[in-house]
Amino acid sequence: MVKYQLVILISYLSLSVVIAARLRVCSGNSRKFCYNGKQVYLSGMNQAWKFYAHDFGNGQYSSSKVHLESTLKQIHKNGGNSIRIWLHTTSALTPRFNSTGHVVAADHCNNHIISEMKEYLCAAERYNIVVFFVLWNGADPNWWRNYQWARQFNGLITVDSKLQSYIDNALIPIVKGLKTFSSLGGYEIINEPEGILFTAANSVACFDASRLAGSGAGFAAQHQFPNLFYMHRLQRFINWQANAIKTHDPNSLVTVGSWRENPQYNNGPSNTFNYYSDHCLIQAGGRSLGTLDFYQIHTYAWNGAYSTTSPMVPTNSASLYQLNKPLVIGEFSHVGSDGTRSLIQLVEHAYNNGYAGAWSWHALGLYHHSDPLSPQLLALDAIRWRPFVRLVLGVVNINCRNPTIGIFDIRRDRFPVQGRPVRNQCSLFTRGR
User: Quick count: other Cβ atoms within 10 Å of Cβ 360?
Assistant: First the structure.
């Protein structure tokens, strides 16, 4: 009898992994999210990191764990349901490249990054929070000054075989490893790719980035070559990775976060265009599943004023952009606003005007345009009882019973990360590899 009950228990737990519900676009409303058949508004914030580029991989999660999981707890306590957190950024620590610039693994510790991400997702499940991992960052003004990072990151965008090596040896293992977690919302291929965009003209409408000339695009590379990329290369970069994610986990949502509204706008002013439409991404990359599930716009004031087409202008609703998918305001803050409304009022604006979610910037509360954590939590609390904000995740994943797998010799190396020493816990990671 005991053996029989054990078999039933194991079967139930195994089944629970398969049937765990996931966040998705509503079948009856393509501009909204649903979970387990019920509409959900994504109320949350950006983490976005504890130690930039060093939160996951090679055993680094142990250094960030307390802070990252505390943020999840506080978001949950204040009624939030979602978070956006960064992963590789500009290849400073992960993935692992060989001497030719091809990716051979997701990190330097036999893909230990997967168990670290699982541990984070387990914590998110405990707090009913869905997580969006941002793979890459196009808005880092310092990456191109480091020759190794620039060579690695540039190669992924400009050389097809290098991008495919990342997909085969890092992205697909990550996607397969995480796909059973109900707390996984999905992946953002790249944050603000327009930061490294060359605003060149092209006879093909989808590839013609000249519309964005003078808008600030190219800011992260300070308009210097060879660290700017043609639009079609960035679209291909997105298309191929999105295709791989959906091939191996059809339930994961995929997005891209634009630095402002101009690149994700249908039928708008002459300096706007939807460069990330299904048509444009497939035209650039040729892979049919490589499309976005929802759009995401970031918005900050410039010289004390929002652009007239910003999603935070009081009269601008999500319908302005004429998009046929959910639209999330992926970054905003009171510090980075026009100063006319409180952070609570900005959050209420996003909720009341047809957007599918809003994530304030950011939990660490440091650096440019970031509000302290406390007012961000108060803003979440202000809408916690509104319809569609409450989210209760379903079955707890069996992987959460023992998410961290593997034992590594501990060795202390020191690498500079924005002025901080970082402990590396993997004996397999050595300089120059």
Answer: 28
Residue 179: other Cβ atoms inside 10 A: 17
Cα 318 to chain center, whole Å? 20
Q: What is the largest CA-CA distance in the chain?
A: 74
Residue (of 35, 128, 27, 120) closest to 75 by Cα position:
128
| Residue 111 in tokens | 């893909």
User: Looking at 69, 125, 188, 192, which residue is catalytic?
Assistant: 192
Q: pLDDT value at position 402?
A: 62
Check if 119 is active-site: no
Handedness of CA 168, 236, 417, 55 (dihedral sign): negative
Query: Reduced to 3 states, what is the DSSP secondary structure of residue 362?
Result: coil
pLDDT in tens, 341-397: 999 999 999 999 999 999 999 999 988 899 999 999 999 999 999 999 999 998 667
CA distance 49 to 149: 19
Dihedral sign for Cα atoms in the order 278, 282, 283, 284: positive
Nearest to 128 by CA among 67, 50, 86, 182: 182
Per-residue pLDDT tens digits for 173-182: 999 999 999 9
Based on the residue annotation, tell me whether 192 is a catalytic residue of this protein: yes
Confidence of residue 418 (pLDDT cuts 50, 70, 90): very low
Six token digits for residue 404? 């961290």
Q: At what angle do helices 343-352 and 373-382 cross, to 10 degrees?
A: 40
Please tell me the distance from the alpha carbon of residue 154 to that of residue 145, in angstroms, as a whole number.
Answer: 12
